[in-house]
Write a structure and sequence with these properties.
5 strands, Trna Endonuclease, Chain: A, domain 1
């Protein structure tokens, strides 16, 4: 079998797994780059986020290899190491390997193994094959095409920046990165209003970035669940404005630096006062209250998670859903993000309006999780990793 054919089979398996877990209720993203010091080290085939309960969140990584000569032991150990490096709650390896020794190794290191039998069952499940969605390669190709036309790499880079932050800084940092990317694509959608093809791609990027911001904020809310509304609001303001939900911790490095200026620089008192005043004024210009006020009210619901799934699903639709046809909840959250960036909601709604076929408000999938596909692994004692509370 040629390397090309093996590669295509591997990509098809990744797409199948993404859809499988999506229908199971997860938020699933394919091809998430793992970066260290701005260098791409590797990528995660499928990244999973789940909200199983009000106070519980889980993140898992999936490594998929569909090869004629599988090296399951190597992939199991690799996945376990990456799980530890990323500090996520579990790892899953999908391999054509069926050897009992691979199952024993998987169990001993706490990695879930989907073997060849499970993969064959997944591949033959009709419900997992949806024809109305772009594959991840097709989706990313839309952004590459715009970059090629513009002779830049801005759109693809922005999308990957938001995606990679899911691995290395998930939570308030990834939410802030996604908010910046959402603002970028929102502006591009308005600027490209006369170029309907580019406006559609920009809207897709806006939806995806909005979805990543929503799940990052949902993750933050889990730690704020028992706080009062005012405390949650204050923590979110601090998080959006300074990158940390604890205001005192966020400001400690800044105050320390200002104190050193005051102590060791000639005329330090005056200079430190100017620096402090300038910092406070610049921070105040970040309208974090817009997001904090809205999000703080959602801590007891799964609204952010549900909206994120809707947005990401619609971003990948071949016949993309127009902004006006999203659910009221999704439009409200995106409207808050637009207000945060000072982008007109009306202009977004009007961007390339003529190129969209208006559709009914999006609904959320009710497809049952095909549990029988995993019976072989569960019977071996390889259940999914336990929930993290």
């Amino acid at each position: 079998m040629s390397d090309a054919n093996t590669g295509r089979k591997g990509l098809a398996l990744e797409e199948t797994l993404k859809e499988y877990f999506w229908q199971a209720g997860y938020f699933a993203v394919r091809g998430v780059p793992y970066r260290l010091d701005d260098e791409d080290v590797t990528d995660v085939d499928v990244w999973l986020y789940e909200r199983p309960a009000a106070l519980s969140r889980r993140r898992l990584i999936v490594d998929a290899k569909n090869k004629a000569k599988p090296k399951a032991a190597e992939r199991l150990i690799w996945a376990r190491g990456l799980q530890s490096a990323l500090n996520v709650d579990g790892a899953i390896v999908a391999s054509t390997d069926k050897r009992p020794s691979s199952h024993r190794l998987a169990k001993s290191i706490g990695v879930t193994l989907l073997d060849g039998d499970a993969i064959n069952k997944l591949a033959s499940t009709p419900k997992i094959k949806l024809g109305d969605q772009h594959s991840s390669e097709g989706y990313d190709g839309l952004f590459k095409a715009v970059d090629a036309a513009r002779r830049s790499a801005d759109w693809r880079s922005a999308l990957l920046d938001a995606r990679s932050s899911l691995l290395t800084s998930f939570g308030i940092h990834s939410a802030n990165m996604a908010l910046r990317v959402a603002g970028f694509f929102g502006e591009q959608a308005v600027l490209a209003a006369l170029k309907s093809d580019q406006a559609q791609v920009a809207l897709r990027g806006f939806y995806s970035a909005g979805a990543y911001a929503a799940i990052g904020l949902d993750f933050v809310l889990a730690d704020l669940a028992f706080q009062s509304h005012d405390d949650r609001r204050a923590a979110l303001i601090s998080g959006v404005r300074y990158g940390q939900t604890n205001l005192r911790e966020a400001l400690t490095p800044v105050r320390t630096a200002i104190g050193l200026v005051r102590q060791h620089v000639s005329n330090g008192g005056s200079i430190a006062a100017q620096v402090e005043r300038g910092f406070d004024q610049q921070a105040a210009r970040v309208p974090a209250e817009i997001i904090a006020e809205y999000v703080a009210r959602l801590s007891a619901t799964d609204a952010l998670y549900t909206i994120a799934r809707e947005l990401e699903r619609n971003a990948f639709k071949i016949d993309i859903v127009h902004y006006d046809a999203l659910s009221v909840e999704a439009r409200s959250l995106l409207g808050v993000f637009l207000d945060f960036h000072g982008i007109s909601r009306e202009k977004i709604a009007n961007a390339a309006r003529g190129s969209f076929a208006k559709q009914a408000p999006a609904t959320h999938e009710a497809t049952l999780f095909p549990e029988d596909a995993l019976k072989s692994t569960k019977s071996e004692g390889h259940d999914a990793p336990e929930q993290k509370h």
